Structure formats: structure tokens, C-alpha cells
Amino acid sequence: MSDLVIVGGGAAGMMAAIFAAGRIGDGSRVTLLEKNDRLGRKIYLTGKGRCNITNMRSWNEFSRHIHPDSKFFKPAFKCFSNEDVRSFFEESGVPVTEEQGRRLFPVSMKASDVAQALERKVRESGVKILYNTVWNPSLSYGALVVATGGRSYPVTGSTGDGYDIARSFGHTVARVFPSLTALMPSDYRCPGTVHLKNVALTLYVGRDLVQREEGEMSFTNDGIEGALGFRVSRRAVWALENGQKVTLSLDLKPALSQQQINARIAREIENDASLSSVPKLLRRLLPAELVQPFMEAHKGLDINMIPDALKDWRFLIISCKGYERAVVTAGGVSLKEINPKTMGSLVHPGLFFAGEVLDLDGDTGGYNLQVAFSTGALAGISAADYLMST
Ligand SMILES: Cc1cc2nc3c(=O)[nH]c(=O)nc-3n(C[C@H](O)[C@H](O)[C@H](O)COP(=O)(O)OP(=O)(O)OC[C@H]3O[C@@H](n4cnc5c(N)ncnc54)[C@H](O)[C@@H]3O)c2cc1C
Question: In CATH, what number is assigned to the domain containing residue 109?
Fold first, then answer.
């Protein structure tokens, strides 16, 4: 009797194994191959060690955070939704809590609890786990699920192997590129790590305004990142890879117009004449670490120019932090060759795909793990049905 073989023991592969074992009613017919000596290494790093398990937004809102084709993801989401993920972890002994932006975390704030609960479920379902084992084409199988992840954080085992596996079965792989990653401006002098709240970031490609986001961002050694930096990074990196000019405009006072900033400056100077010195005034308006880089970026700055400069600090982006620090890999196995209702290959019967290896990725906020869990569950169920029907 042939086995159902799952390649890759990350979030998607473990979920596929649990659902396949449940569907077949006999976990010993499912084998999970993992190249590392433990399962779910990446999960331990998620959400800065706290694991943002999913996002509780309704499908209409959720779908706006899925790229490049949220319609493809809908059947998988319906099969195992964010509500289902919440119940799954609660029933697996991981109480969860919702934070700002409808992001779901374990109450313990420990990603290890999430990874270990998944591993425990895989073991309890009787699935055979082969550690330190990579896929090799001579292995026999009745159905095959490829859940090898993308290319980001290769130290965790995600080194893009699934793209070659997909190609070996005749699949097309859409160009892959790092996403949710830091963007490096030209002539960047890192002001140390500075977190900014209530700012706006606008992305220009060539002369076109392509995205504007408000919220939090950070300057770090790696460049511009944080929630806003990550949100614009997908389109920015794609444009860079296509040789286009990428510019970011940082609005440090999105709630105020130029006139309002002018009025505030006039008030400040009226109360304290020493503030007519530009650096002193800037210290009132900006985090101290930003004053010097702001002045260097705006040579010859006088008081009248400050409102415009605060509303439009320009950065020419020249590169991004690569896969070693990107949260997710965009691109992957082409969705045109996958049945969205089963995650099954339209090219090779008995072959299924799940997780980041697909040309499917999400914004920050719990969307990527939900993609892995939903596509994993659907691929596991469909592969089990295929196995039992042959
Ligand atoms: C630092 C960081 C923080 C993140 N935080 C969050 C977060 O808080 N919330 C969120 O939603 N998403 C987050 N993500 C993204 C999310 O973790 C991934 O999108 C998700 O884990 C992808 O799951 P996957 O199972 O598809 O792939 P992976 O987790 O990459 O798992 C693939 C597995 O396959 C194995 N493998 C690879 N090749 C082979 C082979 N040839 N043979 C056998 N095994 C193989 C790998 O060793 C690995 O264990 C984060 C990512 C990073 C890097």
C-alpha cells in the first residue's frame, strides 16, 4: 500500500500531515519528511518569538492582504479559516489572545508553544516522521504534498528546494523575490534604531505614486523597515528587480498640513525665541536621533522650508535586505497550474502544493501563517482523498 508523502515539516507540512492522517483514519499511511532534526524551525522565530498565529479579520478585509491573487486562496481559507485556526490551537492546549489589528497570539506569547502543539498533534495522529531527510525522486508515494517553504531565512531549512521539485514535475515557477524586508536608501547614515509612530510612507516607482501607508516604521542598520517599510517592500523590491527607480517619501506629520506646522512653529518661536535656530527647533519636532540625518538630507534648511521637509523626506531606495532577513518569499509555484479547490497539480495527478512554496504571500499581521495552515489543511485532505481513491 503506497504512502502519502509530505515534503517539509513547517507550518504547512505539519497541518497537511494532521489533516491527511485524520481523513485517512490511519496516520501510519502518512510520512512527513523534514530536512532538519526537528519540525517547524521557522515557527520558533515568528512574531519576534511570540508568533502572530493568524489575523481575525473577515474574509473581505483579510483578502486585501493576500498577494498576488487572493481569489485563489478563498477555497483554502473557507476549508480551514482563521476561526478554525483559533479553535485548533485552543483545543490543542494553546490559549490565544487578540491584539491590535486583530492579530492573534498565544496568551503565553511564546512561539515555541505553537510549534510544539503542532508537532504534538502530528505525533498523536500517528504520522511517520523522518528527520534529517530530504525529498529524493526515487522515493515511492501514492500521493505527494510539497510543503518546502520559500527561500527566506534559509538557516531554518527553507532553501527553495520546492521550486526544483515543482519544475521536475513540469510546473512553472513565477519569479521569486524577497518580501517583507528592509529597504536600503542611498547615502544612508543609520541614526541607530529609531521607531516612529503615526507617520506615513509613500512609495513612488518612477514618477508614479503606487502605495501610501500610515502607521509605524523604523530606521535600523538594515535600512527602512517596521510595519510600513515591510508593507511597501513587496512592490518596492519587485520594482528594484525590474530596474525601476524606487523612491520613498516619509511624512513625519501626516495629521498636520503645512499651514498647521507653520502655525505651530510660529507659536513655539513666540514662546521661546531661541527656537529660531533650526537644530533647536527640529529637536522639538523630531526624535533627537533624527535631527542630524534630517539636516544632512535637507542641505541649507531654513525655518520656512521645515514644513515641506517634514511632510516629504525623500529616500532613493537602492537595494533591499535579501532572503537571509526577508520574512517571506514572494513568487513561487504558479497558481495557474494548481486547482484552488484541492491544491492539486493540474500538470501531474497525485501531486499537491501547500504554503510559501506557492506563488502566494501575505502582509505582516498573521497572514502568512494562515496561508500555510489553510493550504496545508486543504492539500492534506485532498491528497488523502486522492490516495484513497486510487
Ligand atoms: C523571522 C520571521 C518571522 C515571521 N513571523 C510571522 C508571524 O508572526 N506571522 C505570520 O503569519 N508569518 C510569519 N512569518 C512567515 C511564516 O513563518 C511563513 O510564511 C510560514 O512559516 C511558511 O510555512 P511553510 O510551511 O510554507 O514553510 P516553512 O516554514 O519554510 O517550512 C518548510 C519546511 O520544509 C523543510 N524543507 C525544505 N526543503 C526540504 C526538502 N528538500 N526535504 C525535506 N524538507 C525540506 C524546511 O526545513 C522547513 O522545515 C515569519 C517569517 C520569518 C522568517
Answer: 3.50.50.60
